[in-house]
């Protein structure tokens, strides 16, 4: 009996202990698993450990792990724990970490979330650390990129710096050079944009049935409305939102004209795969197989496009009534948590990833981005022996005419996203662009008003 | 007497010790978040900063929110898959219950989707539904039908998702039915046969009533699961489908909470969804009680 009882006690204790320990252990393992396996740092009391949360594909992960390893080697006593997620889970995971009061020391964030994060005391003001810092030369970094992360408590784009651009992503237009040469069509000009009419004409020449089976298997374009409409709208002199960032302006006739032009490429001119075939995946694959003449190219595509079975190069987007080419520049910021224990080291890491010669060279060589440093970028673009030859186009976009996506200016981008949620009937040619912008404007305005109201509240806190 | 109460006390302590971890877990990971989000639903919380109490304002907005109503409709619409799944699973279970050689193999085949990762399955099906190269359309082509681009067309995206969820749930439902069928005493069928009942009559008057508790269980759990559909939608139609035609309530909650900084509003939707599930389940239990008396 006594024996039995003690056995029972023992088992109970083991069970309970193991449950409790498993709880803790699981968490510890999870975090260790997410970090890098670079555990050769010295005594724990001397090691300053930073958490770095980021996202990216396999090429980027590899490149960033290398850079961070180099950072650790250059900064003895600092250890970086890297936490990486898939792109679509990043926002969820970061916001969960914020809600749980476990903000990583250094992390990526969307420029559109800047105001919310600053107002809620999540992002640290980097200005004091950047000024008089011998390692950092802000005037050698794209002004566009740095300004994206400035905020004076009222308007974004000016004031103190709360993040550094991980990179700037000019969304350029590419074309299949091999296809042009095969069809005997003169190559597009690097500096003078085509007019919309000229663009349609070239596309019509390039859209054809190449194997004679009665089905078209080579198209001019296959644009995704989410990413290319901006270029058409802006170059036609319209925009989603007005100067004051309080009014939705899609009901402008110039806007409707640009949207109609986009829809007509498919329905009237038939130079793109049909509406239902226009899934990004499909047109992307068609481009990769050499079945599309024009397709957007971001710097992040360069490593993949290296292996294309044809030659490609960059050109300006065709221009609407303003006569000017237009496109957007993407960017992700790298910021530091307001609550970090090691602000000096965290800023050093941010700098290493965004503004140091050492870090930039490694990332650029991995072909995951264009250089943040202007002098390095110019040298990089001057080398026309690597693909694409006209890399200068990327720099022109960043330095001269690229813009930020409209959602950046507002507290959240819900109003802007709604525009694309409802757009399918226009692309299918079921309703006209003019009708669509009229019916959609009030809905978007309502969401924008709500976002403005939210922003006012968050400022008071 | 004294020793007995001692033993009783000891056992009580052990009992409590055993019960503590799951109860703690429940309090920490279920009750607390539920209570927190219930409170959150009355605030304008953005998920980052401080929470201000705004009363029922979120709930008022909800019922005029076009996208919420659309997402609710989609969620309920996609539950069409539940009766379809039940009928198919029961038919398969009846077939597999006949003792034909090879049934074990078939049971395994039907059960494989159940144990596979939902994310992997979603990716696989989004390939299958691809308009150009997808397996589904290649199959339809054999019959000379040109299939649509399933996930990019607002009329076909819901049926496509229903097809997938039915396929995914089939094995689980079938297994439950199989177990239920095997517990029906043979003697009932023998008696029915003597009375001259044909196969269909035997099914109607013996099999169906005998597996009723299982049907009830499946309906209740499927409705709860169906109300919370998210992963498939998030992976297969990451923007909520053309014109939001495949967005579910949980998908909309997730978008509001994590992409649009409206955690308070998202919480109010979660509360409404919770109440909906509770009510539907309650009604089903009541109905089940009533109809049990008839048998």
TrEMBL record, chain A:
Query: What are the protein's UniProt keywords?
Result: Signal
User: Which top-level group of life is the source organism from?
Assistant: Bacteria
The keyword Signal appears for this protein: yes
Q: Does the keyword Metal-binding apply?
A: no
Question: Record's InterPro entries?
Answer: Bact_solute-bd_prot1, SBP
Which residue positions does the secretion signal occupy? 1-22
**Pfam families in the record:** SBP_bac_1 (PF01547)
Entry-linked PANTHER family: ABC TRANSPORTER SUBSTRATE-BINDING PROTEIN, ARABINOSE-BINDING PROTEIN-RELATED
Name of the protein this chain belongs to = Sugar ABC transporter substrate-binding protein
Q: Organism, per UniProt?
A: Paenibacillus woosongensis
- Organism placement in taxonomy: Bacteria, Bacillati, Bacillota, Bacilli, Bacillales
Automatic annotation (TrEMBL), chain B:
Query: Subcellular location, in the record's words?
Result: Cell membrane
Which positions, given as ranges, span the membrane? 12-39, 76-96, 108-128, 160-180, 265-285
PROSITE patterns associated with the record? ABC_TM1
Classification via CDD domains: TM_PBP2
Q: Which InterPro entries match?
A: ABC_transporter_permease, MalF_N, MetI-like, MetI-like_sf
Gene Ontology annotations of biological process type = transmembrane transport
Name a single GO cellular component: plasma membrane
Q: Which topology term describes how it sits in the membrane? A: Multi-pass membrane protein
ABC transmembrane type-1 domain: which residues?
67-284
**Keyword terms, alphabetized:** Cell membrane, Membrane, Transmembrane, Transmembrane helix, Transport
Q: Where is coiled-coil annotated?
A: none
Pfam families associated with the record: BPD_transp_1 (PF00528)
The organism's place on the tree of life at top rank = Bacteria
Homology family: Belongs to the binding-protein-dependent transport system permease family.
Could you tell me what this protein is called?
A: Sugar ABC transporter permease
Instruction: Write the lineage as a comma-separated list.
Output: Bacteria, Bacillati, Bacillota, Bacilli, Bacillales
């Amino acid at each position: 009996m006594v024996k039995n009882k003690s056995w029972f006690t023992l088992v109970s204790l083991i069970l309970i202990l193991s449950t409790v320990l498993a709880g803790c252990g699981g968490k510890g393992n999870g975090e260790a698993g997410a970090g890098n396996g670079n555990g050769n740092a010295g005594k724990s009391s001397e090691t300053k450990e930073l958490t770095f949360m980021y996202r990216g594909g396999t090429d980027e992960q590899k490149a960033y792990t290398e850079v961070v390893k180099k950072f650790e080697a250059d900064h003895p006593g600092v250890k970086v724990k890297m936490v990486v997620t898939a792109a679509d889970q990043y926002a969820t995971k970061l916001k969960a970490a914020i809600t749980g009061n476990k903000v990583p020391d250094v992390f990526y964030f969307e420029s559109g979330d800047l105001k919310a994060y600053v107002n809620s005391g999540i992002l640290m003001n980097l200005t004091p650390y950047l000024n008089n810092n011998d390692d950092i030369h802000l005037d050698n970094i794209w002004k566009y990129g740095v300004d994206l992360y400035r905020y004076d408590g009222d308007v974004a784009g000016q004031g103190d710096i709360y993040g550094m651009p991980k990179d700037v992503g000019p969304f350029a237009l590419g074309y299949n050079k091999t296809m042009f040469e095969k069809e005997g069509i003169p190559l597009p000009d690097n500096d003078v944009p085509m007019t919309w009419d000229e663009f349609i004409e070239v596309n019509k020449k390039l859209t054809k049935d190449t194997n004679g089976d009665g089905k078209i298997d080579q198209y001019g374009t296959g644009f995704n409305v989410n990413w290319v409409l901006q270029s058409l709208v802006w170059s036609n002199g319209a925009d989603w939102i007005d100067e004051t960032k309080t009014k939705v302006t899609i009901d402008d006739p110039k806007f409707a004209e640009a949207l109609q032009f986009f829809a007509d490429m498919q329905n009237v001119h038939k130079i793109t795969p049909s509406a239902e075939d226009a899934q990004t995946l499909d047109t992307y694959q068609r481009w990769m197989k050499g079945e599309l003449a024009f397709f957007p190219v971001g710097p992040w595509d360069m490593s993949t496009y290296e292996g294309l079975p044809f030659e490609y190069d960059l050109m300006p987007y065709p221009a609407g009534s303003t006569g000017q080419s237009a496109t957007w520049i993407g960017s992700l910021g790298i910021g530091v948590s307001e609550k970090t224990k090691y602000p000096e080291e965290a800023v050093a890491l941010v700098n290493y990833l965004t503004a140091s010669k050492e870090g930039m060279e490694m990332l650029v060589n991995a072909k995951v981005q264009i250089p943040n440093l202007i002098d390095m970028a110019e040298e990089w673009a001057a080398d026309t022996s690597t693909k694409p030859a006209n890399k200068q186009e990327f720099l022109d976009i960043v330095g001269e005419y690229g813009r930020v996506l409209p959602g950046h200016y507002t507290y959240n981008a819900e109003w802007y996203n709604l525009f694309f949620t409802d757009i399918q009937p226009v692309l299918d040619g079921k309703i006209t662009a003019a009708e669509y912008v009229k019916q959609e404007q009030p809905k978007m305005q309502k969401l924008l008003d709500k976002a403005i109201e939210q922003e006012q509240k968050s400022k008071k806190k | 007497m004294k020793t007995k109460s001692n033993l009783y006390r000891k056992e009580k302590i052990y009992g409590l010790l055993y019960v503590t971890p799951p109860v703690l877990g429940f309090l920490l990971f279920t009750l607390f978040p539920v209570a927190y989000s219930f409170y959150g639903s009355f605030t304008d919380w953005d998920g980052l900063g401080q929470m201000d109490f705004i009363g029922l304002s979120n709930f008022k907005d909800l019922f005029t929110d076009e996208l919420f109503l659309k997402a609710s409709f989609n969620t309920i619409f996609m539950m069409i898959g539940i009766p379809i799944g039940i009928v198919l699973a029961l038919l398969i279970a009846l077939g597999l219950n006949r003792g034909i050689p090879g049934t074990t193999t078939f049971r395994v085949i039907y059960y494989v989707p159940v144990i596979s990762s939902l994310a992997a399955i979603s990716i696989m099906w989004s390939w299958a539904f691809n308009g150009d190269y997808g397996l589904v359309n290649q199959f339809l082509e054999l019959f000379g039908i040109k299939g649509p681009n399933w996930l990019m067309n607002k009329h076909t995206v819901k049926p496509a998702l229903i097809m997938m969820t039915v396929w995914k749930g089939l094995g689980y439902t079938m297994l439950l039915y199989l177990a239920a069928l095997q517990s029906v005493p043979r003697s009932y069928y023998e008696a029915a046969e003597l009375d001259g009942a044909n196969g269909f009559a035997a099914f109607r008057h013996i099999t169906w009533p005998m597996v009723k508790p299982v049907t009830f269980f499946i309906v209740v759990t499927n409705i709860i699961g169906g109300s919370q559909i998210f992963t498939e939608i998030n992976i297969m139609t990451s923007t909520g489908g053309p014109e939001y035609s495949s967005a579910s309530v949980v998908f909309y909650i997730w978008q509001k909470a994590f992409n649009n900084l409206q955690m308070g509003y998202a919480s109010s939707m979660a509360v409404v969804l919770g109440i909906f599930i509770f009510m539907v389940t309650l009604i089903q239990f009541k109905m089940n009680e009533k109809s049990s008396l008839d048998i």
